[in-house]
Amino acid sequence: MKKMNGSLPTIIMFVALIGLMYFMMIRPQKKQQQKRQEMLGNLKKGDAVITIGRLHGVVDSINNADHTVTLDCDGIFLTFEQSAIASVIPAASNGGTTIEKKSPVTPKESEEEDSAPEDEEKKS
């Protein structure tokens, strides 16, 4: 009977360790998975998204039967699995514009004038 009393604390510690592992690892993972499912469930046309490959685009259409999303990436339409969406920026907060086009940089006239005297100095 004394041997049974010695194993009781070991069993209690083992059960406590399993419980701690559940609350530290499994439960947060389930919460994160639930948030991700909610994010993908609220996905709608016009939302700006970022894929797991870090491609930025705007949702053009959603096919719930095939679990696919068609993204408009600056005029190029690409189809992805819904699971490839890493994050969503709702259409209301992105203001309808997601992609900024930048004009090419042209050299200033002052830089061109500064380089001309250097060439003359090298020749002499």
Structure notes:
It is a single-pass membrane protein. The chain crosses the membrane at residues 6-26. One of its GO terms (cellular component) is plasma membrane. The protein has 124 residues and is α+β, with helices and mostly antiparallel strands. It has two domains: 1-41; 44-100, SH3 type barrels. Helices cover 48% and strands 23% of the residues. It has three helices and five strands. The chain has helices spanning 2-41, 91-94, 109-123; strands spanning 48-51, 56-63, 68-73, 76-81, 85-89. It has a five-stranded antiparallel β-sheet. The radius of gyration is 29 Å and the shape is elongated.
- The portion of residues assigned to helices is 40-55%
Q: How many H/I helical runs?
A: 3
The figure for the number of domains is 2
Shape: elongated
- Low-pLDDT sequence parts: 97-101
Oligomer: single chain
**What is the architecture of the largest domain at the second tier of CATH?**
Roll
| Largest β sheet strand count, sense and barrel closure | 5 strands, antiparallel
Q: Say how many strands there are.
A: 5
Share of residues in strands: 15-25%
Keywords: Cell membrane, Membrane, Protein transport, Translocation, Transmembrane, Transmembrane helix, Transport
GO biological process, one term: protein transport
Transmembrane segments: 6-26
Biased composition (Acidic residues): 110-124
Name its key features.
3 helices, alpha+beta, SH3 type barrels, 124 residues, 5-stranded antiparallel sheet, single chain
